[in-house]
Amino acid sequence: MRSLTLTRLVGIAPLLIFVAMLAYIGFNAPNFFTVTTADLVLKQSIPVVVVSLGLAIVVMAGGDDIVAGGIDLSIPSTAALAASITALLVTNMNQPLIVGLLAALAAALAIGLVNALLVTRINMTPLLATLASSVAIVGIASVVTSSRRINVTDPAIVFIRDGCILGISADVVLVAILVFVAFHLIHRTRWGMNMQAVGGSRDAAEISGIPVKRFLFSSFVLAALAGWLAAPFVLARGSGVSPGVEENLLIEMVLATFLGAAFSPRRVVTLWGAVLGAILVAAVSIGFKSMGVNVFWTGLIKGSLILIVVALAAVSSRTRT
Amino acid sequence: MTSTNTTARTGMLDTFLRYGFLIVFAGFFALFTVVNPIFVTPGNILNIVEGSAVLLILALGMTLVVSMGGIDLSVGIALDFGAAFAVVAMKNYGIDWSTAVLIGIAGGTLVGGLNAILVVGLNVSPFLATLGTFFIGSSVQRIFTNGGGPISYRKMPEEFRNLALGDVFGIPSEVIIALVLLAIYFVVLQRSIFGRRAHAIGMQTSAALVAGIKVKLYVALGFVLASGTCAIGGIIAAANMRMFTPLAGFSYLMDAIAAVFIGAAINARGRPNVMGTVVGVLFLAMVTNGLNLMGLDFNTKDALSGLILVGALALAVSQQKRG
Description:
The complex is a heterodimer of chains A (321) and B (323). By secondary structure, chain A is mostly helical. Chain A has 13 helices and 4 strands.
């Protein structure tokens, strides 16, 4: 009985560490637990949440072995390219926003298709395929923008940045809707269930007659779509697009998604975990900033915190088996 | 009639795919030569070889880790630490250059040590562990240099500078160092019991465990040796530039991974291997150099080399499946 409580305690320990960290920040930073800060945290986490949804879907479909299973490192660069194409068309060529977004969608779908083909047809490991394609995508994005910053002042983008829907920040509302749609797709449809079965055990899924490759294929297309969906938020946050926007997004996406796995009781990547991971990482960053911690130290503290959490999750999943 | 036709065609397709990567290698070589004849001059070939020395050193370390079924995203940090420890030891503590080299290597192995503790001791997956080390290592460099400014050391001892700029019988010393490391890695990884066991761990860890291989010790050693090797690359880079540039190692990461996987893909059994890595490194260095000589605009060059990387990897992997 006692050991059962202990196991359960170790199970939620990663989450407890974060809660303790936030409590510590709350005691030391004035006004941390306020609606304004909460809004700031959610706003900050937004592009990461959107791309993490894509990564979570790929990992859920491909299995969570990072080298051999599913992973897509090209989502942030897809977001950067989509944002670049949109910015180029809207600002430099005076096209309506919808034209820019549609062109970006075409590019994102092409990327998803290429990734999917590399993985399912050529049998490249997803890590390698998407790492290589992300290098190419970043290169193409720098051709699109000539490595220059492009401002976007389209009213719709400004609305996403500054607007409110029912008193809540517009971008937060839009992303919340997106999260619910993704959740419904993965957890409430037959398609989503089958996809999770593929990720759980590819062999078992194959034997049950699930077309495994087709699900892997669509997971990469969905991931590229997530990159495209992140583009308007990237544009809104930066009031345009700057070179190098994908780098930070990549690190934060991977951290959020796999941190999310540490929060889940079975230590698997989930949509909620990824969203929670992104929000908590943003909360801790903003918390340290408001405590006046030197920004160079924030990276160190964040990195160590995340390693502790991931290590703890690894240790506790080992003791269970 | 039709059937013979099809067999002939599949035969040709198979041949193309089997030697596809080498054909592409030769094709690019020819293309660059035609576009700019300077490409094949001995001076430029030497440039390519010399320019790829540091990348080769990093890729060797990566080959070791990938052979054991892991991956190391912190090779760039080990490179930075090697450079930082050596430069700071000489500049701020007046330590003699040869000791400084050893201190640099030791500094690099700190990174591998942390990776080993995380992966072997705490059972974190290599990808996440080395990503975490990368995060922490980058942050440490920013704190140490107060935001990322380089630490230059103009009055570096001549002997230390010669690690990069000297030559023996006309062969640049960085090439010699890379070749020595290459020979050591080839013997250790492809011709020794240690190498056999390392590959066994990479192919099937559980089987290696049953066979009595001390998997944990080997994996820990793999991370430490790899980071020590990368530190040597950092020391050469520091000697070359007469300074330590924070976060400079990151730019090598993608190329090192690509070189190792190109090498694995052109191997008949699909295993990462030392000579394959050399081919991968030379291919990447050739493409960079050739595109430079074509006088393309900076951005176009980036995009093209990325697309070539995707194409080359795809071809190399598809050929491995058939061959």
